[in-house]
Specification:
Elements: E1 4-7, H1 13-22, E2 24-27, H2 34-41, E3 47-51, H3 58-62, E4 69-73, H4 82-87, E5 91-93, H5 100-116, H6 118-126, E6 145-149, H7 153-163, E7 168-172, E8 183-184, H8 188-194, E9 197-200, H9 214-220, E10 225-228, H10 237-245, E11 251-254, E12 273-275, H11 284-304
Parallel strand pairs: 1-2, 1-3, 3-4, 4-5, 6-7, 6-9, 7-8, 9-10, 10-11, 11-12
Bound molecules: 2-keto-D-gluconic acid (8YV).
Length: 312
């Protein structure tokens, strides 16, 4: 008999068909009354397939008494209640490494866009404004000071790319990373004060909630651009919006927000702000690699009892 797996929301078609070939899949999003469905059928499921977007909270985990494993499509697992999973001895996998390059590529794209005004200049041409005059001068990017918040896999990939732009890189993390060839800045506020570009690459979750606080944003100041490719929760969004509308920082480029897909509309008219719909890992190649890894984790768990990329 195929292991019965609860799929929380829609996933990539290729992942859905791979999962359906190996497992007995049920899509919870199809249920008009998911809670009622789980109360009746929760004990049928031994696995969950989910994504960073849909997660798996404690209520869901508790509603599945035979649950053994959660396969997460995404490197971030802030929407999965790891404590609840640990308490129940439920294994959890994510999709690290395969998305690092694409996320770091997009971070560099955002850094250059917000410095040089790429998106704004594109709008300028489309509006026909070029016929009436020149686009305003922007800010040089090469050779500037880059602060990285969170020097994990993605943070390091950003630093590697920044070296190609002759940037001076410093970082902040929970602690100094012995082998990192960049200067560690124990105070995030000091890093922001020093940096001309501050890029957020720290994992989401309770430990990093509003890490980029009002003070940090104010320390970044008028010369500073903020780029976020991690999670909206890491930034005090209200403080950021205040600083942008009050022109107290130079600009921001954001791929993630506090309450996606809602984006503060007061930012829409601002040309020094780049707004993206959470697409950092969104290439065909990377999303397929994430799909393969999600599937292979679940298959390996049920065939050999081992996850390939375990979180718990
Ligand atoms: C999303 C991401 O997972 O990997 C992550 O943590 O944020 C993205 O890659 C993807 O959009 C699916 O939710």
């Amino acid at each position: 008999m195929k292991p019965r797996i609860l799929q929380i929301g829609r996933l990539m078609p290729s992942l859905e068909s791979a999962l359906a070939s190996e497992f007995d899949i049920h899509l919870l999003a199809n249920e008009a009354d998911p809670k009622g469905y789980l109360a009746k059928h929760g004990a049928e499921f031994v696995g969950v397939a989910t994504s960073a977007r849909f997660g798996a909270d404690a209520a869901l985990i508790d509603a599945l008494p035979k649950l053994k494993v959660i396969g997460n499509f995404g490197v971030g697992f802030d929407t999965i209640d790891l404590d609840a999973a640990r308490r129940r001895g439920v294994a959890v996998s994510n999709t690290p490494d395969v998305l690092t390059d694409c996320v770091a590529d997009l971070a560099l794209g955002l850094l250059i866009d917000v410095a040089r005004g790429v998106s704004a200049a594109d709008r300028f041409v489309r509006r026909g404004d070029w016929l009436r005059g020149a686009f305003p001068l922007a800010t040089r990017f090469s050779g500037k000071r880059l602060g990285i918040v969170g020097l994990g896999r993605i943070g390091r990939a950003i630093a590697k790319r920044a070296a190609g732009f002759d940037m001076e890189t410093r970082y902040h993390d929970r602690a100094q990373i012995a082998e990192a060839p960049f200067r560690f800045e124990p105070s995030l506020t000091e890093l922001a004060r020093w940096a001309e570009f501050l890029v957020v690459a720290a994992a989401g979750g309770e430990q990093t909630r509003k890490l980029i606080s009002r003070d940090v944003i104010e320390a970044l100041g008028e010369k500073g651009f903020l780029v976020n490719i991690s999670r909206g929760s890491v930034v005090d969004q209200a403080a950021l919006v205040d600083a942008l509308t009050g022109k107290r920082i130079a600009g921001a480029a954001l791929d993630v927000f506090e309450s996606e897909p809602n984006v503060p509309e007061v930012l829409f008219p601002l040309d020094n702000v780049v707004l993206l719909p959470h697409i950092a890992s969104g290439t065909q190649e990377t999303r397929q690699a994430m799909a393969d890894l999600t599937f292979n984790n679940l298959r390996s768990f049920f065939r050999d009892g081992k996850l390939l990329t375990p979180v718990v």
